[in-house]
Amino acid sequence: MADVEAVAGKSLTGCGVEAVCFDLDGTMFNTEHLFFEAGDTVLRKYDRRMTRDVMDVIIGRRPMESFILLVDYLGIDVDPMHLLEISREAHHALISEKLAPMPGVVELLETLAARGIPCAVTTSSPRDYAETLVEQSGLTKHFRFFLTSADVVQGKPHPEIYLKAANTFGVRPERMAVLEDSAAGTRAAVLARTRAIAVPHEFTAAHDFTGAELRVETLTDRRVYELLAI
């Protein structure tokens, strides 16, 4: 796999954007914040607490990979699959009450649609979960396809999902923009040689976004529109 610093050194300025990929958790929706709340509730049962350091260990990865790392990091004597299942239950309960799009997501999707630029959801989460969130928010019409944890052999930070997305769109990777909130996702986008836009939140602000062409606090930032030429 290519080195991220070497790839980052190759300028993509001037390449027109023909398609856009949206990461799901933390980029499109406030689900990382809800996961933090749910995770803390679950970890208290094992005399542990959810912290930003714990979030750094698991964020941006496929669920089972995340929970194997979590159990090892916290030294909990529990089956990672069991911890994943009870965490999902707590997380889904909060989603039904508190799910919300991240700032600027809906407006950006509407602008891209008006300009005829196709979009996709590219997430490390399961397909049924991703499709449910997008449908619940009334945004399904904006996406040509979904790529999820079930569609790749290697999860982020490996570039497979973004190489597959470019192939599915029928565009070269350097003409595809990727919106990501985590280091793992951004690294995957950079290694795929796409135009990576980092949109960190409070749990990922300290992540390494080396290679991102742009870093913004929210998708309301006009520089996102300028980079996408919309």
Structure summarized in a few sentences:
With 230 residues, the protein is an alpha/beta fold.
**Helix-strand pattern:** HEHHHHHEHEHEHEEH
Any idea what the CATH architecture of the largest domain is? 3-Layer(aba) Sandwich
Estimate the strand proportion.
Answer: 5-15%
Question: How far apart, in Å, are the first and last alpha carbons?
Answer: 32 Å
How many E-type strands?
6
Total domain units: 2
Q: What structural category characterises the helix and strand content?
A: alpha/beta
**Helix segment count?**
10
- Looking across the biggest beta sheet, what order are the strands in? 3-2-1-4-5-6
CATH class of the largest domain: Alpha Beta
CATH superfamily of the largest domain: HAD superfamily/HAD-like
CATH topology of the largest domain: Rossmann fold
The stretches of 5 or more residues where confidence is low (pLDDT under 50) are 8-14
Global mean pLDDT = 92
What characteristic shape results from the CA principal axes?
A: globular
Q: What fraction, in percent, of the residue positions are helical?
A: 40-55%
Largest sheet: 6 strands, parallel
Please tell me how large the radius of gyration is: 17 Å
Structure description:
44% of the residues lie in helices and 10% in strands. It has 230 residues and is of the alpha/beta class. The chain folds into two domains: 4-29 and 101-227, 3-Layer(aba) Sandwich (Rossmann fold), CATH 3.40.50; 31-98, DNA polymerase, domain 1. Strands 3-2-1-4-5-6 form a six-stranded parallel β-sheet, with helices on both faces. Residues 8-14 have low confidence and may be disordered.
